[in-house]
Amino acid sequence: MKFHQLLLPLLLAVSWSTQAQYTLSGTVQTPKGIPLDGAHIHSNMLHSVSTPDGYYEINAIPKGEQRVVISYIGYTTLDTVIDFRNTIVLNATLQPHAAQLQEVVLTENNTVSQNTVHEQRLKTETIEKYSSATLGDALKEISGVYALKTGTTIVKPIINGLHSSRVPVISNNVRLEDQQWGTEHAPNLDINSAGRISVIKGANALQYGGDAIGGLVLVEPMKVLKDTLFGKTILTGNSNGHGGNIATSLHRGNEKGWAWNANGSFKYMGDREAPDYVISNTGNREANFSGDAKYIGSGYDISGFYSFYNADIGIAKATHIGNTTDLVNAINNQQPSIIEPFTHTISAPRQEIQHHLAKLDYNKKLSDNASLNLQYAFQLNRRKEFDLRRGEYKDVPALDLTLVTHSAQANWKKYLGDVTLKSGASFSLQNNDASPDTGISPLIPNYTKTDVGAYGIASYSFSDSFSGEAGLRYDFTNISANKYYKKSRWSNLGYDGVFDHFITGEQGSQWLTKPKFTYHNVSASLGVRKRLSNNLELLGNAGLAMRNPNPSELFSDGLHHSNGTIELGDLGLKKEQAVKLSATLLKSGDVFTFEATPFINRIHNFIYLQPTAAETTIRGSFPVYNYKQTDALLTGIDLNTHWKPLQNLQHTFGFAYVRGTNTVTDEPIIDMPPLNINNTVRYTIPKWHDLFVELRNETVFTQSRYPNYNFYTDVPQDGELISTLVDVSTPPKGYSLLHFTSGVQFALGKMQTAVNLSVYNIFNTTYRDYLNRQRLYTDEAGRNIQLQIKFTY
Amino acid sequence: MRNLKISALALISFISLTSCSNDDDAVFVNEEEVITTLTATFTPAVGGETVTLTSRDLDGDGPDAPVLTVSGDFVTGTTYSGTVSFLNETESPAENISEEVYEEGDEHQIFFQQSGLGTFTYADTDVNGNPIGLSFNYQAADAATTGALTITLRHEPNKAAEGVADGDITNAAGSTDATATFQVAIVTP
Predict the structure, then answer these.
(1) Which residue among A445, A508, A619 places its CB closest to the CB of B26?
(2) Which positions make up the signal peptide (chain B) (predicted)?
(3) Higher confidence at residue A759 or residue A1?
(4) In whole angstroms, what separates CA A309 from the centre of its chain?
């Protein structure tokens, strides 16, 4: 039937127009539904290779009858003629050569997907471009994703204005755990280990948890499902930081039997340089490894995965302020207090992070249309933060945390014609151990956290053009901590008489407390997908998500040495409840495509960190940041367009705006990304070794909507204490940067080689970013020239 | 069957790994690096009363502000020999931090910020011949006056920067380990 539908336009083809160009896309898979990576698709001179998930795309196909060939070693080649009068989706199933069945099954996908969540994916090329940078840097290429930074190397994603534990990062189906995501804890993940990175905006992925109020980042390793062995090595050199990166990987694929992957990378960077000075102590180094081994049997597979992330990150010395006087000086001088000559050496303050992740995974096909997945994962995260310390403590970390997480989950999936059912359960046990050997009361205490959750999701195709999905999840969480509070702090926070039941002991001027919290959360999602016309689709989503306050929000207590602030949690915080509505309009087309995602997110009990005042100690006065709670309303829109005015010319546009309002005080919400716009123009000349030249403009406007949390403090001046304004609120000016990238590909012996040259911040513009925690102290890094060589073998 | 084996394997590894986890009890941390008390002692060169300035903050980085005491007034035109000492009084007996500051003299410097109260000169040097400030001399102003005296201990200052060795904190950078501002008076005898 479907085949005939495809033949019909072919027979009816009458008119010709030489100008029109169309796109052919789809997936290539085996009869078992396994995607084929690296299948060759060509139509006349145009060709494409399928990605690890089987997806391919050929653009700029002229109108009319064109021959399309899809081939893959070991499989029968599909050879057909298609009449291009429109954008065509061709999902091909290739039959193994050895099999008796020689026929080719060809279907045109006319029905709308049951997946009502729009995933935005980073291209492999983009992942590779950021080989020597971080996951957060790469994700910024998706509109609506911004970066929260602490310096140049600690980068976390912000999705639609939300970050940290509101945006879980799921690596290979395991939620990354890291001391519960304080703002300067970036995802402990090497971007080079990722085969595929995608972003889900909104709380609609219940199988990963019910607390993704902002969205989700999904990172998956490379999957190779054919009998092959191949590898790739990327060498990157950077002028800014005088260093680089080597990333290498080997993949052994198999449709049956053993398959494995191995990735290793090493980064070595020195101090970054702003246009006018060296940002002292901003070097970093990383040595990472990840690998898996998988046995694919008939109807089941079992795999083991292990990854190790090991990083040593310098924190700009200029941000290690003594007290508010130094902070005032830093703000007024607009120049770092410490500028030293360039060096590769990393000294205090710095972070040493090690993250082990081990996982066992079992997939079983229960019947033709049902499958079961069982998974156990172990994570060990060791974080040491070193500070400028005196005497015998010089080489002792100021913070030394060990976080152990065990998690287990079971997922079940069944297809019943128009209905798809998914359900599962998860369990996790987490233990944080704060070493007392630091000689400093730990910012995050010892705690144990237990989570149990279960979910169910049903998808239904109402018609060929309309499908819907509904899901429900329940989570139970128990947190029990063990912590000493200074009696003066306990009273100052108003805990006397309120949380007395947590007190279990007393030592000198401190209370020993054992706070315990239990949460029951229900989250839900509802989504629809409707095809409005041939190339226009509308997705609508509603999500209810609940997030518990995390240990840093509840228990933080003390001086945060690396940015000289006193951070105070609040035992009285309640869970956040968010209702997010979003819609996505997708237009596919031959010349012009776009996607627009407006959203509205209403968050009850929104937790944020607010500068409140200065507190005087013998070291001087320090700014105090309190975790607070309010009701928030976030609205915004993300917009993406692709336009191909000529066959070799492509323009990409990204636009993201978010407006955050504290609905209790009717003030703006602190730390919301400013309006940002990206424009990319790319010109390709396929016959010159696939040469491409790309110019990218990144424009970030001044954030005019911010709350005024400035405070006054006494600063000694000419022998008098003068009450001085500490302007921690005013955002820096907007900026506009221009980046250039160019590359060619050629064969070097048996190796496919690609050489790319990029210049970031061509004009060496001086700027500061509102969402960089170090913006009060130093400028952002300036121009960087990057040379990258990639070998595929 | 295979399913069962794998579940058993996962369960065993899970239990064995869980049982390794540490005991949860928080360990009491006595913050040994903390400076709770700054004391500046001014002894007149010839006769007269010793003046002692003290800043004491027994809860360290806690919310309670330091308590400042000034034992008396300075006398116009008098020369004082002074010392600054630092203590951690959260411990018993109190730990003397001054010794540590002296041993690491090249990484520390004490600054005296004031206007019109007289002249401060350093009376000690580190291994590089730069001042530390644990010992100093103070020549009180000739006319009676009042004003604020800020005493600051800087960790890792840039002693080579302009004016720093002469006691000007402006270009010193580094981080503040202890600081206190005292309201003092200079009176005629």
Answers:
(1) A445
(2) 1-21
(3) A759
(4) 16
